[in-house]
């Protein structure tokens, strides 16, 4: 099954006025690093200034929702509010139900944050059955798939600007 990615956007967006936060889990470092790099690369290509891309980390994907809220609140308190947050994590199925519980709870809470914070919170969590699937979606397997971090960076810029 081919994954096509974000594809064409309906217009070119200029992200030069945006401050985008990326908060990532530290589990599965090789995959996470590739996804973060993909998001940063896409943000820069859409005009977001390097100094306006703020990156933080949390222990794991389960911590992404609360970490995203604290990240948002900290930046706002500093007088430098974010225009979007990209929480990045990787969940790989093991032999227990742990995977399903973490995927479901993390997904639901990140979705709710869009409305609670009133800004785009992009769903940047891979939920894969195997490590190979995660590596492919992080662009680490040549010719298999693209880096999904790029899609998340593009979505953050588009959602921050489209309806303003």
TrEMBL record:
Signal peptide: none annotated. CDD domains: Lumazine_synthase-I. Coiled coil: none annotated. One of its GO terms (molecular function) is 6,7-dimethyl-8-ribityllumazine synthase activity. The keyword Transferase applies. GO terms for cellular component: mitochondrial intermembrane space; riboflavin synthase complex. One of its GO terms (biological process) is riboflavin biosynthetic process. Its EC number is 2.5.1.78. Pathway: Cofactor biosynthesis; riboflavin biosynthesis; riboflavin from 2-hydroxy-3-oxobutyl phosphate and 5-amino-6-(D-ribitylamino)uracil: step 1/2. Keywords: Riboflavin biosynthesis, Transferase. It catalyses: (2S)-2-hydroxy-3-oxobutyl phosphate + 5-amino-6-(D-ribitylamino)uracil = 6,7-dimethyl-8-(1-D-ribityl)lumazine + phosphate + 2 H2O + H(+). It holds the Pfam family DMRL_synthase. InterPro entries: LS, LS/RS, LS/RS_sf. Homopentamer. Catalyzes the formation of 6,7-dimethyl-8-ribityllumazine by condensation of 5-amino-6-(D-ribitylamino)uracil with 3,4-dihydroxy-2-butanone 4-phosphate. This is the penultimate step in the biosynthesis of riboflavin. Belongs to the DMRL synthase family. PANTHER family: 6,7-DIMETHYL-8-RIBITYLLUMAZINE SYNTHASE, 6,7-DIMETHYL-8-RIBITYLLUMAZINE SYNTHASE DMRL SYNTHASE LUMAZINE SYNTHASE. This is 6,7-dimethyl-8-ribityllumazine synthase. It comes from Candida verbasci.
């Amino acid at each position: 099954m081919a994954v096509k990615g974000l594809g064409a956007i309906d217009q070119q967006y200029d992200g030069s006025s945006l401050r985008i936060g990326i908060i990532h889990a530290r589990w599965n470092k090789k995959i996470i690093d590739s996804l973060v790099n993909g998001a940063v690369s896409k943000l820069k290509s859409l005009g977001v200034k390097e100094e306006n891309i703020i990156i933080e980390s949390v222990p794991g994907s389960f911590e992404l929702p609360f970490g995203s809220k604290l990240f948002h609140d900290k930046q706002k308190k500093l007088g430098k509010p974010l225009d979007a947050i990209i929480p990045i994590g990787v969940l790989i199925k093991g032999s227990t139900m742990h995977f399903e519980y973490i995927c479901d709870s993390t997904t639901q809470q990140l979705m709710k944050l869009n409305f609670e914070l009133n800004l785009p919170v992009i769903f940047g969590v891979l939920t894969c059955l195997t490590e190979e699937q995660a590596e492919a979606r992080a662009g680490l397997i040549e010719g298999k798939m693209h880096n999904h971090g790029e899609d998340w960076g593009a979505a953050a810029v588009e959602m921050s600007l489209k309806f303003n």
